[in-house]
Design the sequence.
């Protein structure tokens, strides 16, 4: 169709309108977001609830943790960048990784957990594996998790340990030698930990991490 054809301008306008409508539709489509509800599959939620009940006194449970957020090392981790541990068990106060839990879920084929198991063995992290059974004995689960994490059943919970620390230790400020008080760090690189701070703060900024 030549530029002087009587239908050229209407055709060009129509094409431009179609392109604009298409672009608008694509933009609106990209903004059509909604929250996934509920999170995780029924089997996954059931196990998470029981796991939390079993270990909450001493440990924290983090579901669906990316492998590269838990482990660090050489380039061998690159092939695991899109994989996650089902559950990562950490010390409730220190946040040290103590154990990893892998589930044998229906959507996993064959020996799908083998590479993750081998990876944890190299990193020196305990690995526990469970099937998709929806209900299990919570006391037995607690015993297995505690054993894998190296925790004694009679070890006092974190809250009691913190209380014992505050009662038994009475350090002096490393700068002005005044008394110190125990506080909980909420911000910065030590967020989540307990810390002794000088009673003269902010005039004196002496501090000791617990």
Sequence:
């Amino acid at each position: 169709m030549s530029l002087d054809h009587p239908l050229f301008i209407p055709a060009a306008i129509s094409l431009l309108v179609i392109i604009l409508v298409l672009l608008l539709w694509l933009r609106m489509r990209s903004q059509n977001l909604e929250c996934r509800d509920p999170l995780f599959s029924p089997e996954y939620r059931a196990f998470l609830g029981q796991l939390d009940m079993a270990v909450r006194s001493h440990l924290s449970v983090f579901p669906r943790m990316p492998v590269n957020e838990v482990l660090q090392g050489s380039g061998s981790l690159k092939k695991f960048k899109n994989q996650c541990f089902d559950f990562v068990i950490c010390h409730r106060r220190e946040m040290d990784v103590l154990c990893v839990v892998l589930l044998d879920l229906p959507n996993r084929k064959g020996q799908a957990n083998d590479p993750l198991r081998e990876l944890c063995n190299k990193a020196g992290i305990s690995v526990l594996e469970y099937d998709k059974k929806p209900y299990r004995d919570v006391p037995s689960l607690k015993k297995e998790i505690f054993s894998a994490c190296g925790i004694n059943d009679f070890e006092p919970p974190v809250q009691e340990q913190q209380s014992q620390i505050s009662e038994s230790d009475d350090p002096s400020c490393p700068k002005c030698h005044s008394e110190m008080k125990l506080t909980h760090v909420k911000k910065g690189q030590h967020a989540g930990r307990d810390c002794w701070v000088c009673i003269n703060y902010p005039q004196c900024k002496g501090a000791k991490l617990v």
About this structure: Residues 164-168 have pLDDT under 50 and may be disordered.
